[in-house]
Amino acid sequence: MKTFVDKVLAQADYQPARLLEILRAVQAEFRHIPQPVIELIAAGLQIPRTQIIAVAEFYSFLHLEPQGRYELYIADSITDRMLGNQQVLEALAARLQVAVGGVRGDGLVSLNRTACTGMCDQGPAGLVNGYPLPRLTPAKIDALADLIEQQVPLNAWPAEMFRVEEPIYRPDLLLNQAFVNGAAIQASFARGLTETLAELDVSHLRGRGGAGFKTALKWRSCSQQAATPRYVICNADEGEPGTFKDRMLLDLYADQVFEGMTVCAAIIGSSHGLVYLRAEYLFLRDKLLAVLRARREQGLLGQAILGRDGFDFDIEIRMGAGAYICGEASAQIESLEGKPGIPRTKPPNSVVCGYQRKPTVVDNVETFFAATHIAIQGGQWFAAVGTEQSTGTKLLSISGDCLRPGIYEYPFGTSVRTILQDCGAEEVMGVQVGGPSGTFISNRELDRVVAFEDLSTAGSFIVFNRSRNLFAIAQNFTDFFAHESCGFCTPCRVGTSLLKNQLAKIADGLGAAEDLAELSALCEVVKNNSHCGLGESAANPILTTLLSYPELYLQQLQYREFAPAFDLDATLAAARRLAQREDPAAHLNQVEN
């Protein structure tokens, strides 16, 4: 044990910031984090053992108790439920004789649920020892169980078992662009770095991770900080259920993502880049490392890039360990520093005080991908597409009730109706735009458009037909937030659980009018008082379904007669204010007319 730990610590250069990386290696070796190992790591890194325990307890893929040698997780996102994940769990539990949430007596296999695995277009999906198991058909489940019972090593399993497809149904401005490695770096230096930043400004590129912060402003602010070193972080922790477009970009377009990071590094004066890769994308790690090696060989990473003295920049891959909150920039930085991923208090923002308390740019995979092509083509080329406030195109991960789930690229300003036609969606009840933290819209709102000024999204687009239960959707999303809350602040830690329970009461038909009023008031408390974006978004599944289908909530109340003066439309006033909606569709009397 000590020999293994010493080797892992040496590979991590004895840096406490690499604690998560160290614990992942230990988990893979021992199937949990043993207490003696905690003592060895604490001594080797010279950190308190309590810090190690806090990290191990924070991340869902790390365990202090032994798991199976074959560690199975089945995705429990709403799309996986729609595709029969419960039947998959039951079949695996029966075939492998293991309880859901438990470890088999002989220690061979464990079986658990997990949140979205980033394969919503290919569900029901799961993971085995971190590697993907898409499209879990009955035949595949039988084959999987046989391989486990025969104790066949994962590297000897059929490749088809792990094959993740990347269906791109509608490429547009970015996905259609030809690209030669190094073109964006060369164009940036030929034009001048200051001028390239100006082109990024002209493009009006906004962050594609959901927040929509102006990219040029972020890069410029970071470059103007006096402190050094400066860092570039690519946020590849694509944890929003229903989102998988970054998976596709890293799988098929990694060079262009890394090139965007390199252009950013040249502009802000950075020599060190980090990719925070979500744990569920472990299968991409070796491929990305191979791309990085090739770029070093081509002179596109490392010392004196493209022969330019003084321009030294390299990129390393760091893995997450299963925590949705680490998609938030400051929580991700905490995780990269070997801590639990609890969001920081702001200000200062990461451009001032980021990784290792130094100026840091944190941008999404798609943002760096777009920046690469803007560096080559110029800002006006990009700004000519989309809308005035939302330039360029947006990659959408489309899943749910449609004939063609997969990746679509659209100019901003495209209507939901057009998108539904393209993906083959019929009899639509509603669409969840932007994942659980986004907006649910009804079939009365299909002429709304994907844009920062209307339906903002990090890329998730889930379709629900009329056979689906609105409350099952809202409950799945609300349960997700309650589970993923980091627990730091009371409004989120307690509030998400209260939301979950109150919504369940109404969904079960046991609610009275005052319960609905209380639910609306609770949404306001959670949204307005939480520490970070998770808590601020946790009420959205309730708020947006309530505004889209208020009549369904009203019908679900068993005891409306207890409050004869109850006015649902007045109760919805708080929800409308929080969701910034006053359109006719958000008023019950308009719906009923």
From TrEMBL:
Check the UniProt entry and state the signal peptide residues, or none: none
- Fetch the SMART domains from UniProt: NADH_4Fe-4S
Asked if the keyword Iron-sulfur belongs to this entry, the reply reads yes
Listed A to Z, the keywords are: 4Fe-4S, Iron, Iron-sulfur, Metal-binding
| Entries under InterPro entries matching the protein | NADH-UbQ_OxRdtase_51kDa_CS (IPR001949), Nuo51_FMN-bd (IPR011538), Nuo51_FMN-bd_sf (IPR037225), NuoE_N (IPR041921), Nuop51_4Fe4S-bd (IPR019575), Nuop51_4Fe4S-bd_sf (IPR037207), Thioredoxin-like_sf (IPR036249)
Q: Which coenzymes or cofactors are required?
A: FMN
Residue span, NADH-ubiquinone oxidoreductase 51kDa subunit iron-sulphur binding domain: 471-516
Listed GO molecular functions?
4 iron, 4 sulfur cluster binding; FMN binding; metal ion binding; NADH dehydrogenase (ubiquinone) activity
Q: Which Pfam families match?
A: 2Fe-2S_thioredx (PF01257), Complex1_51K (PF01512), NADH_4Fe-4S (PF10589)
Q: Which domain of life is it from?
A: Bacteria
Family assignment from sequence similarity:
Belongs to the complex I 51 kDa subunit family.
PANTHER family annotated for this entry?
Answer: NADH-QUINONE OXIDOREDUCTASE SUBUNIT F
Task: List the protein's name.
Answer: NADH-quinone oxidoreductase subunit F
**Source species, please?**
Methylomonas koyamae
